[in-house]
Amino acid sequence: MIYIFGYGSLIDADCRQCTFPGEHAYAARLHGYQRYWSGLKSADDRSAVVITPDNNASVNGVLIPFDESFLPELDKREEDYDRVLLDVSQLDLLDTLPKPAVKIYTYVAKEYWHPQSNSPILQSYLDVCLRGCLAVNEQYAREFLLSTNYWVSHWLDDRHQPIYPRAINMDALALEQIDSILNDMAHLADYNPVAHS
């Protein structure tokens, strides 16, 4: 079985189904990588999360069963990243996989830089990532926030007019949970979310 380790918007079932048929995803933690907010070359109006090698770090995410025939479409979606092959020893499996992993891929940043005023962290993108984490549990969403660096003041609350193209089907209960977590986590260094009314 082929798996993709998703650590950003691919954590969310609705979001990944925009690119390929979604199956159930399985919670996992990847060791040896750090997650950052970064600007993107292909989408210069926003930032996204990326990962880069770091032996002292780990990131949570999901393992997604995957048909290799969809790799070209996923590579296109992840054009700012290099697809790399992981070893199962790099992962803590928090769920039982239905079939053993033959290959596990993830996407690693080609380059990364702090979000800027013209490439802010979008609330609509963060909402998608956190909704995916909440499908595991609330602690998983908190871990996502704590294990991501480069929280900066370049932040845009675009919920009512989402800029992120795959911000879909966000329900009020999920948004309420997300806001509650964000308010609790406001002590993060350089963390400056826009308050919602």
From TrEMBL:
Q: Which CDD domains match?
A: GGCT_like
Give any Pfam family that matches: GGACT
The segment(s) forming the Gamma-glutamylcyclotransferase AIG2-like domain are 4-115
Transmembrane parts of this sequence: none
Q: Which InterPro entries match?
A: AIG2-like_dom, GGCT-like, GGCT-like_sf
Q: What is this protein called?
A: Gamma-glutamylcyclotransferase AIG2-like domain-containing protein
